[in-house]
Structures are given as C-alpha cells and as structure tokens.
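Sample 3 of the quickstart, ligand nicotinamide-adenine-dinucleotide:
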Amino acid sequence: MNSNTLSFKDRVVVITGSGGGLGRVYAIEYAKRGAKVVVNDLGGSLKGEGHNSRAADIVVSEIREKYKGTAVANYDSVTDNAESIIRTAISNFGRIDIVVNNAGILRDSSFAKMSEASFASVIDVHLNGAYKLCKAAWPYMRKQKFGRIVNTCSPAGLYGNFGQANYSAAKLGLVGFAETLAKEGYRYNIRVNCIVPLARSRMTERIIPPHILKQLAPEKIAPMVLYLTHEDTDATNVIIELAAGFYSQVRWERSSGQIFNPSPKSYTSEAILNKWDSIVDYRDKPFNKTQHPVQLSDYNYLIQKAREL
Ligand code: NAD
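Result:
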C-alpha cells in the first residue's frame, strides 16, 4: 500500500446508525475523502424506541454544506428494511462498496431480570441487522469483485459485562459472522473485519467518568474503520480493539493442551480431572502452529501425536 492519502473517491459507503455517535464521525471522514455516503439512521432512543428522520438529515446537511461532500439519508431500520438501505446506495450512486455495521441499541439489565423481548430486540438490531445488510450487499460485492465490511463488536462481546447478556451475545455473534464471511468472500476480494471500540457517545457518557471520557473521542476510532475498508487494505478476518488512540489486534489462543491416548479408557472424566491443569496451561506452546486460524491439518497433527502415545 502506498503511504499517500487514502482516498475513497467514488467509493459508495453505507454506514448504519450514522445519525450520531461513532457512525456520524465515520460518515464525515469518508465524505471528506471523496466517498459517496448513505447515512442510515432510524433516529430512535438508546433503547431503540421511536423514529425520527432528523438524526440522518443533520449529518447529511453537515457533509454537504460544511465539507462539500456527497451523502444521502436513509431512515430505515436495519431490522425491517435492510434491502432498502442498500437500494438507496444503488439507486443514488449505482453501486455499494463498503458496509459498516454500526447501528446499535442497549437494553441492559441483570440476566435474572432480562426479558425475552429485550434479549431478542438487542440481537435483532446488532446481529440480525448486520446479517440483513450483508445479505443485501453481498451479491453486488461478489459480482463487482470488491467489498469491504466492518462489524462493530464490543469489549462486552469479547469479555462479558454485567447487565449485558443480550448485548454480549449479539456482539460476539458478529465476530463469528465476520470470520465466516471473510473466508467465503476472500476470492471475491471481499474483506471482512471486526472492531472492538470504546468511545465517547450517548452509549457511554453516563457510565464512564468524565476525565476518561475526555480521552475517548470517536475521532480516534474512525481512522481504523477507514483503513480496514480501503481498497488497498488486504487485512481480513481480524479483530481490532481500539480506544483513546490505542490500536491492537485480538486473537483466539489455544492452550498448549493435553493429548490423551486414543484408547477409550484414557479419556474419561477422571483422566480430565487429573490432567485439568495441563489442559488449561498456556505456558509452553509445543503446538503453536495450532493457533488461530485453525486448520484441519492441525487436527491431523494432533491425531497423529495421540497415536504415537
Ligand atoms: P449511538 O447510540 O450514538 O449510535 C447508534 C446509532 O444507531 C444511533 O444513532 C441509533 O439511532 C442507530 N440505530 C439504532 N437502532 C437502529 C436501527 N434498527 N436501524 C438503524 N439505525 C439504528 O452509539 P455509538 O456509541 O455511536 O454506537 C455505535 C456502535 O458502536 C454500536 O453498534 C455500539 O454497540 C458500538 N460500540 C460502541 C462503544 C462505545 O464505547 N461507544 C463500545 C463498543 C461498541
């Protein structure tokens, strides 16, 4: 990749939930770099209640008037009308290159008190919404042999968080979803990655102390989203955790593990009890080629090793 300005000239980008927060900052940055942007937002509350076209309209006006960029608004919900969001890109700009799955709501409560409706609605917006958007964009991306997708995960998805069983499940679901799309899209030059941000927005302003919030500008998240979706970026299937100007990659890691002899007598629950400490031991890595991404050949290697015991 050359180190000059990363241009998005003539690329068409859909950013869901970009009427505020992180999505708004992405939309402006893409537009400043020449992209044609669909600003999607149904304009509801943090819990996903209500509907208002103002949020998306304000961002579109800002892009057009302040930055002389190109943008159109779309007010559909990712849960009901994802096809129409992609149609907005096609009918206005003739193509769809980049999808940023960013729309989100919170319905926090302890798991003991969490209703089925609040579990389902959070899964619906984050996970099913991203599925529907990708499903609608995928045929265009495959056909043109170009596509870039970013799914927005969360620390709560990777590590869990009190009161967020619904949100955690949805967010980690987005990681698995991205990992498979990355594999299936690879030969069509479709790259799919996840971000795990922490940033100042209405989602965090009441739970993070002000002196920390000050460090968490959403402008520190946008550069990574643009990098991951640029045409010269080949990264795919990566999870990037980022906040306050710190950027890092997260990966799955398997412990060094314990091989049991294939005889049925050897892999009993009692044998596991005896070997538990070495099963979960990460200290030495005799099989470090078995780290993510998992390949079938790794299993063949382990089976071979077990036979040797
Ligand atoms: P935000 O509430 O400002 O932005 C979310 C936007 O999504 C809102 O404008 C909302 O109207 C829109 N939206 C909600 N439901 C929608 C639907 N069905 N269809 C279309 N639009 C819808 O919050 P944010 O912090 O900017 O969050 C952006 C994304 O980042 C979310 O997916 C969130 O879960 C994720 N995230 C944020 C943080 C953080 O620290 N702010 C951390 C981890 C993950």
